[in-house]
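Our consortium's second objective concerns turning raw sequence data into structural hypotheses that experimental partners can test. To show how far this objective has progressed, the report includes one record in full. It was chosen at random from the queue rather than selected for favorable results. The single chain below, 371 residues long, was entered without modification.
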Amino acid sequence: MLDFFSTGLSALVWENWVMMGVGIVLIYLGIFKKMEPLLLGPIGFAALLANVARTEMGLTDTGGLMEIIYTQLISTGVIPLIIFLGIGTMTDFSPLLANPKTFFLGAAAQIGIFCALGLAVFMGFGLSEAASIGIIGGADGPTAIYTATRLVEDQPGIIAAVTVSAYSYMALVPIIQPPIIKSLTTKKQRQISMGKLRKVRPIEKILFPISVTIIVGIIVPFALPLVGMLMLGNLFQVSGVMNRLSKSGGNELINVATIFLGLGIGFLMVGDTFLNLQTIKILLLGIFAFATATAGGTLLGQLFYKLSGGKINPMIGAAGVSAVPMASRVVQKIGLKENPRSHLLMHAMGPNVAGVIGSATAAGVLIGLLG
């Protein structure tokens, strides 16, 4: 016989109701505001599942669907790595190859990781926790998840907060970056138009993923899982003879992985473990990480501007965060507003894709030191 104590209402506390509201907000942002809908949609719905009927989804009993997804596919690093392979099939490194010095702009933007790490330690987090939070500054969701599961596997609350922070702020790049870029550049600098990039030969595109894999594997071996899968996916794309693998990696495979990622992370967003002061601190540190990453890239862009005699638009440094291609589009939009004849998108894509490699490498360094 069904009574009150056999319904979901008997197990719900106020924290569950709040997190259900958060889940609905994430769904709203994904669908109606088009903010990272492929991730915020599944994460938001999974947050509903996690809080509305805990015993039926494996949150209190072992063997539930979302618990299996999290423990077997996310905490082991499988899903983030599969997503990185898919990202590789969709990434064009030609702008970086056409102008290799922009790699330094992508590297400079990673300063946000270490600024946030230092501030997190100052605020009382342990080193492993601080590193997991700092990686938000890389503006790369899979990298943030992979790093957090390697460093704080026993603290699902931090993993959930880091993931939600990373993807939410990635979606907010068009809002977060412009004020920072404008405060660090002049109107005259923002009006600078840059010439066309050189055409990259097919052999360069093929040698690039092979070379990067070897170099990173030797220098930062702990970054190899992320960078290696990224480069493998890119090799599928540029080879010209592995189109089936490239299409599968960039479509079916990454789509399935994205669904599982959303469910697994939403599984962690249970009210009594997610709603606390620690989560608020992580969300604040996340936006600090994004802001300092943008500033770091822009400031090095200023140096490039000086060294080039005013030929390089310093704004392209802001695209060094690995939010591809959103950060590049932000730079393009600001540039067009200041100078309708200025097209900076491809120039900004150089540091943008460099940021993907940079954030993965920084993650490898932190895992190697603290993991």
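The partners drew two points from this record. The chain has one domain: 14-53+64-370. Residues 1-6 have pLDDT under 50 and may be disordered. Both points have been shared with the crystallography group to help prioritize constructs.
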